[in-house]
Fold:
Amino acid sequence: MAEVSFGSDGDFSHKSMIQKVNNNLANELGNLCQRTLSMVFKNCNKAIPSEIGPYTEEDKALLAEAASLRETTSEYMSVQAIHKYTQAVVNMVRDANKYIDEQAPWVLRKTDPARMATVLYVILEVVRHVAILYQPIIPESANKILDQLQVPVFERTFAHLETSPVQPGASIAKPEGVFPRIEMPEEMLVEA
Structure:
């Protein structure tokens, strides 16, 4: 869906699909979910951080970007530009990965645990937006993410993006990977 404009001819290949799944889902979104939820599980008493400090400008910018994603993606869906919809969500995940790398909560764990908790909460909230918006495209995987975030089933609609944030203090289970990497078959590795 990310590769072809709806209603147009496209070039499909299994190799390209495997690369997309591995890059965008396993490496980017899957890794973001796994490392964030693992840090929360290990460092926040196995619960969504409940003591969230004041937001920095970086926090506010990332949260505002996540909040504006619904409007952007709605415009794309209204004209059936599914490839643009998916790219907007992928870009949000990339920005969240950049944010986590810059904020380095694994360093904050030792130097400023309160700030670490805030950074982790911001990422979890962004992941909630991403997972809700991914439901029309990858419903089973998106719902597995929402399950791990403890988002109630009745709070997973687009209408809940602005009204039902991740609940501070909600207990989480040990995180499980949602997007296993797909191994490229030998015959696809050989250049034509």
